[in-house]
Amino acid sequence: MTFARLTPLVLAIGLGPTMGHAAPCGGDFGSFVQAMSEEARLAGLPDAAIAGFFDGARQDAAVLKADRSQGVFRKTFLDFSQSLISKSRLKNGAAFAESLDNVFDRAESEYGVPRGLLLAFWAFETDFGAVQGDFNTRNAIVTLAQDCRRPEIFQPQVLAAIQLTAMGDFDPATTTGAWAGEIGMVQMLPKDILERGVDGDGDGLITLKTSVPDAILSGASMLQQHGWRAGEPWLQEVTVPPDLDWSLSGLDGERPGSDWAAMGVQAREGGLADLPASLILPQGRKGPAFIVYQNYKTLFEWNKSFTYVTTAAYFATRLQGAKPYDAGDPDPALTTEQMMALQEKLAAKGYDVGQIDGILGASTRRAIQMEQQRLGLPADAWPTVELLKSL
């Protein structure tokens, strides 16, 4: 799959992050296609491309099933990271870092993004390009655009894919990728490809499925435009004193690195940067501890999962020479049923925990920490049986 001549068309049609009009989600699929076609016309897209894009479009039940069953994110950080970070991926990452040295040097010099981060996402997204997905991309994004869970995210992706169709660089019938519509080695959505794709190998095309330079530099471009800060760290493993005020932990508890150092928080390697930083405890005060900086928060533009982002950020440090983390001895994780029961209890108390899904996301962590403070428990945002019983 190739993309060329991006900038003039993007500027001409001007797809923004949101639309002035939104096609209604749910209901009859044919009616949705008609409404989405009208949105495309309002966006200035040509009728031939619109008709060609939707010709043969269908709902994909497998996409909805995948969207509803992301059980992998119910894993703890330790389980998730140990399942993704293997000796093979460490070895392959080191080999690619050496063989593609000039590409990664370009990524850092032109976009400020270090090779460890790009290697980590390349590994996790497609196992260094080996597993890119076989879902029809057109059907995947149309299915998710009609679904009422996240239409505001996927309806603009439909418009972007139609624009690519108009350019002759997207075949709706044959383009394949991940179930959520991402394409290529670093899994980019159509809108990101239009706005941030880079011709890394100089052939005049952006070929994200087969060109490693295009994929790597496009990923770097995307992170830079999401706010990545060149030369700044993203995550460091730390040791934490046992008498720390645990309520200070969490992404909301940002303070200068020098403040954390004054409280006894120490980097396992090197020193803490005197930048705004947060202390995160993925499995509470008894598990691994990390200081994270603004660049870490940028990674949530790539993936919204706390566990995924933390694992990728940590893996990036390993690929750049950091030691394996100290796993500690965290309290046992709740079962999915216990976690859902805890979310229900928190929601009943007025907390916004999002969907009752058994996933320890950011809003659930925040609610847990507030209840721990109220009950006089160590406020480290890690759910325990003790907390569940207390509620």
Overview features:
single chain; 391 residues; mainly alpha; 3 domains; two-stranded antiparallel sheet; 48% helix; 6% strand; disordered N terminus
Reconstruct the topology from this structure:
Elements: H1 6-13, H2 29-42, H3 47-54, H4 61-68, H5 77-84, H6 87-99, H7 101-111, H8 115-126, E1 135-136, H9 137-146, H10 151-166, E2 176-177, H11 190-196, H12 212-225, E3 235-239, E4 255-256, H13 257-262, E5 266-267, E6 276-280, E7 290-293, H14 294-298, H15 306-319, H16 336-348, H17 362-375, H18 385-390
Antiparallel strand pairs: 1-2, 3-5, 3-7, 4-6, 6-7
Structural features, described:
Helices cover 48% and strands 6% of the residues. It is mainly alpha-helical and 391 residues long. The chain folds into 3 domains: 1-225, no CATH class; 235-319, no CATH class; 336-390, no CATH class. The strands form 2 sheets. A 5-stranded antiparallel β-sheet has the order 4-6-7-3-5. It is globular.
Strand order of the largest sheet: 4-6-7-3-5
The span between the termini is 53 Å
What share of the residues does DSSP label as strand, in percent?
5-15%
Number of helices: 18
How many individual β-strands? Answer: 7
Mean pLDDT: 93
- The coarse silhouette is globular
Rounded to an integer, what's the Rg over CA atoms? 22 Å
Oligomer: single chain
User: Based on helices, strands and strand pairing, what is the structural class?
Assistant: mainly alpha
Helix content: 40-55%
The low-pLDDT segments are: 3-20
In N-to-C order, the SSE pattern is: HHHHHHHHEHHEHHEEHEEEHHHHH
Biggest sheet architecture: 5 strands, antiparallel
Q: Please give the domain count.
A: 3
